[in-house]
Write a structure and sequence with these properties.
Layout: H1 5-15, H2 26-35, E1 82-87, H3 90-98, E2 106-112, E3 115-125, H4 128-131, E4 140-144, E5 159-163, H5 173-183, E6 191-198, E7 201-210, H6 214-221, E8 227-229, H7 264-267, H8 276-291, H9 301-313, E9 328-333, E10 336-341, H10 356-359, H11 377-380, H12 386-405, H13 408-426, H14 434-460, H15 467-472, H16 507-513
Parallel strand pairs: 1-6
Antiparallel strand pairs: 1-2, 2-3, 3-4, 4-5, 5-7, 6-7, 8-9, 9-10
Helix pairs in contact: 1-12, 9-12, 12-14, 13-14
C-alpha cells in the first residue's frame, strides 16, 4: 500500500460531505429577460432550482425525473447478444453499401429479437471510422424509427446507432465506458451487443447504442426536459473541414459575443426545437461560465464533476478535452449546463499519435490535452476554486473505490469477453482476429489496473497530478511499459478506396478486402 493511503482515504470521506453547489437562480433568469431584445419571443418563467446539493450526489439522481423506458429492458438487456435482421431488396442493399458514405437514409424493415419493426430508416454514420470501413463495406449505421412517421418507435426508442467496432481490438471500449459512466451516476447512452443479418445472411457483429435524442432525454430527465445540442465543427469548416481552428471557438463553449449567428456549430446542431429566447439563454450562460461569474447558476456542478472524473480516467483525446473538440452533447435546462458522453472508441490514449502506455499517467489536474485550460470553460471552472478541486478529488476517490477496488470493472470486462468471444469468431468480416481480440481484452484490463494505481498516487500526492509537475519530475510515474509505447487497442481496416460493388461482395471476399485471413 502506498504511503499516505489511509490518510488520503479518510480525507476523501470527509470531502464527500456536500458543499454548497446550488443550481439555476431567479437572478439569472432576470438578467436574461433584461438582456433579451424587445422583439424576441416572450420569456417563459424560470423557477429557481433550490435543490440541496445532497439530492444530486447519488447515481440514481441522473434519472430522477424519468421512468425507465421499455426499450431499456428489451434491446438494451446486456445479458445476451441480440439479433437484428435487416430486410431490404438485395439490389437496394448493394446500392446502399456502395453509396453509404453519402449518409442518405434508406427505408427498411427490421426484425429485432424476432419482433418485426416496419418502415425504419437506415444510413451510414461516422467520420474517420467511415473512411476506415470503405474497403470492407462493413460500415457503422444510424437507424431512425421515427424518420418516416412522427412518433413511431421501437418500444419508445426513436434513434439507434449500430457501431461496427473498428479501431478497437477489445471490441468493448464504448461499451465499458458507457456502462462505467452509468454506474457512476453520469447520464449515458444505453448499449448492448447485436449480431446483424441482412435478409437472413450473416453481416456482422455490432454494438447497439441508444441515440441521444428525445427518448434519451425523457428517460434521463423526464417529460419536461431541457434543450440538447451536439456542438461539432467537423462539417462546418473547423478541424477536419478546412476552415481553420478559429471556427472551434463555439464548440469549445467560449463566449464570443451576444449574437446567436456567432455560434453556428452549436445552434445549427440543436437536437431539440429551440426558440430565439433559448439562444439568448444559452449565450448568457456561456458568458457567465467564461467569466467565472456565479458558476453554480449556470453549471450543474455535481453532474459535470462526475462526468469529468469518468472522462479523464479513460483518457479520451477524441473529445472536448482533446484536439478534435467534439464528441459530446451539451444539455441545458433553465440556463444550467452539463455534458453527455459520446463516442469513446478511441479512448485509452489511442487517439491520433497518443499511446496507451503514456495515458496511464495522464494528469488528472491537467485534463485538457490540446490547447489551454482556459480554452475549455466547461472544465476550467473546476480549477478556479479549491473547493471544486477538493470535490473533484473526493469523487475520484469514490470512483476508484466503487468501480476499481470493488472489482466492478474487471468483472464487467471478464463477463463481456465471455459473452462476445463467439461472435468475434462468427463475424464474416470482423476487424480483428480472435487472437487480437484476446490481446485487446488483456490490454484493457492492464490499463485499468495501472491507471487506477496512477490516479491513487496523484490523489495522495506521491505522483504529480499536473502536466507541469510530471514534466519536472517523472520518477514516481507508474511503469506502464507492459502496454508498449505506441497506440495499442487499434486495429480495423485502414485501407484505401471502395471495392467494386457491382454485385454484393461475398463474405469471404469482404474479409480478404479488410485484410483478414479465413479462420
Amino acid at each position: 500500500m502506498r504511503k499516505g493511503h489511509i490518510l488520503a482515504a479518510a480525507l476523501a470521506l470527509l470531502l464527500l460531505l456536500p458543499v454548497g453547489c446550488g443550481r439555476a437562480s431567479t437572478a439569472a433568469a432576470t438578467e436574461i429577460a433584461a438582456a433579451e431584445p424587445a422583439d424576441s419571443e416572450p420569456a417563459a418563467s424560470t423557477a429557481a432550482n433550490t435543490a440541496d446539493f445532497t439530492e444530486t450526489t447519488e447515481p440514481e439522481a441522473a434519472a430522477a425525473s424519468g421512468e425507465a423506458a421499455d426499450y431499456a429492458d428489451t434491446l438494451f438487456d446486456t445479458s445476451y447478444v441480440h439479433t437484428i435482421d435487416i430486410l431490404v431488396p438485395d439490389d437496394d442493399w448493394t446500392t446502399f453499401i456502395r453509396t453509404c458514405t453519402s449518409k442518405e437514409y434508406m427505408a427498411c424493415d427490421m426484425v429485432i429479437d424476432g419482433e418485426t419493426v416496419t418502415d425504419a430508416a437506415i444510413r451510414g454514420k461516422g467520420n474517420s471510422s467511415m473512411q476506415r470501413s470503405q474497403s470492407s463495406g462493413k460500415y457503422s449505421f444510424k437507424v431512425e424509427f421515427d424518420h418516416y412517421a412522427d412518433g413511431a418507435s421501437y418500444h419508445g426508442l426513436d434513434k439507434l446507432s449500430l457501431n461496427n467496432l473498428v479501431v478497437d481490438d477489445s471490441c468493448m471500449r464504448d461499451y465499458i465506458v458507457y456502462r462505467m459512466m452509468d454506474e457512476f451516476g453520469v447520464p449515458a447512452p444505453l448499449c448492448s451487443y447485436v449480431f446483424i443479418t441482412v435478409n437472413g445472411e450473416d453481416w456482422g457483429f455490432y454494438l447497439a447504442v441508444e441515440g441521444v435524442e428525445d427518448a434519451f432525454l425523457e428517460r434521463n430527465y423526464g417529460a419536461e426536459h431541457g434543450n440538447l445540442y451536439k456542438p461539432d465543427n467537423l462539417n462546418n469548416g473547423g478541424a477536419g473541414g478546412g476552415g481553420g481552428m478559429g471556427s472551434q471557438n463555439d464548440v469549445k463553449l467560449l463566449y464570443i459575443d451576444d449574437d446567436p449567428a456567432s455560434y453556428p456549430n452549436i445552434f445549427d446542431s440543436a437536437k431539440t426545437d429551440i426558440s430565439r429566447r433559448d439562444r439568448y439563454v444559452l449565450i448568457e450562460s456561456l458568458r457567465k461560465l467564461n467569466a467565472l461569474e456565479d458558476v453554480e447558476s449556470v453549471v450543474d456542478t455535481e453532474a459535470m464533476l462526475r462526468y469529468l472524473v469518468a472522462h479523464t480516467f479513460v483518457s479520451n483525446g477524441d473529445s472536448y478535452t482533446g484536439s478534435s473538440v467534439h464528441n459530446y452533447y451539451l444539455y441545458e435546462k433553465d440556463g444550467v449546463l452539463s455534458m453527455i458522453p459520446w463516442d469513446y472508441n478511441e479512448a485509452f490514449g489511442d487517439f491520433g499519435s497518443g499511446s496507451v502506455a503514456s495515458a496511464v499517467n495522464d494528469p488528472i489536474d491537467s485534463p485538457v490535452t490540446s490547447g489551454s485550460l482556459e480554452d475549455r470553460p466547461m472544465v476550467a471552472w473546476v480549477f478556479s476554486s479549491d473547493e471544486y478541486v477538493a470535490r473533484y478529488h473526493a469523487l475520484y476517490a469514490d470512483f476508484l473505490t466503487r468501480l476499481c477496488d470493488s472489482g466492478y470493472l474487471s468483472d464487467l470486462i471478464g463477463t463481456t469477453r465471455a459473452l462476445i468471444a463467439p461472435y468475434i469468431e462468427r463475424d464474416p468480416i470482423s476487424y480483428v482476429t480472435v487472437d487480437e481480440f484476446e490481446a485487446g481484452v488483456t490490454q484493457l484490463l492492464t490499463f485499468f489496473e495501472l491507471r487506477a494505481e496512477s490516479v491513487r498516487g496523484q490523489l495522495d500526492g506521491t505522483i504529480p497530478s499536473t502536466s507541469e509537475g510530471q514534466a519536472a519530475d517523472s520518477s514516481a510515474l507508474v511503469d506502464a511499459s507492459a502496454l508498449g509505447s505506441a497506440g495499442g487497442f487499434g486495429g480495423g481496416n485502414f485501407g484505401g478506396g471502395m471495392p467494386n460493388f457491382g454485385a454484393m461482395p461475398s463474405r469471404e471476399a469482404s474479409r480478404e478486402a479488410s485484410g483478414e485471413a479465413s479462420r
